[in-house]
């Protein structure tokens, strides 16, 4: 499948540049998706973050170079470490021995082989979804900047929801809802080329004026695959997102479109939330 082939081509690019600069933007371009979507797909499918995978592969290759007689300082520089001290710290974290000890015969080291993605048919639990095309959607709400590190965002976004709820700001957002609004939205705007423009909105669909302290965003017209779910937040929604990306998307005939991810919260109970996950797609 083309989608899977492009993803593996991006992995080949990473593997070929372990001893040089790896540009997330270039890897994502090869995979034909945004940097954010590429990182998220990788972490969900591989079970580790992209940054951790690259670090593990570099340290694995560094150990082989050391065993072949190369100097510690040369290996450190080769794999992007600014000093032997930083390299030693990272090396010991994975191998539990120093780089100099790794050069000794009989030293036990760890190896993290390169990965490749394949489709595995699980068929354990059914997934209910629908394909919906929407024109532009105007939303208004609270905006927060996102990090270029997806692992940080997995922690940052739930904290933002807590802050908005505790401050009472969520009630002000709800009051802006149109009659046809389904619920409160979490909109992840990471389709922009500049990482500095990545943002997350807690907002509602509305035609009302923008209150002081809030922001407006126009979600572009797009087609979405919509998955419903329920359970305790944020674990339940993250699990639905993971299954949608790792189980449904690779076999669907669709791929990621250049538009925001949307979460729709249909009730107010975080312990037993009812929600929808909207993934932007294209043929």
Domain count: the total is 2
Main sheet: strands, sense, barrel: 9 strands, antiparallel
The CATH topology label of the largest domain is Multidrug-efflux Transporter 1 Regulator Bmrr, Chain A
- Low-confidence stretches are none
What is the count of β-strands? 9
Provide a count of the helices.
10
Proportion of beta-strand residues: 15-25%
Gyration radius (Cα, Å) is: 22 Å
Can you offer a commentary on this structure?
With 283 residues, this protein is an alpha+beta fold. It folds into two domains: 101 residues, Arc Repressor Mutant, subunit A; 154 residues, Regulatory factor, effector binding domain (Multidrug-efflux Transporter 1 Regulator Bmrr, Chain A, Alpha-Beta Barrel), CATH 3.20.80.10. Helix content is 41%, strand content 21%. The chain contains ten helices and nine strands. Strands 1, 2, 3, 4, 5, 6, 7, 8 and 9 form a nine-stranded antiparallel sheet that branches. A hairpin with a 7-residue loop joins strand 8 and strand 9. The longest helix has 18 residues. It is elongated, with a radius of gyration of 22 Å.
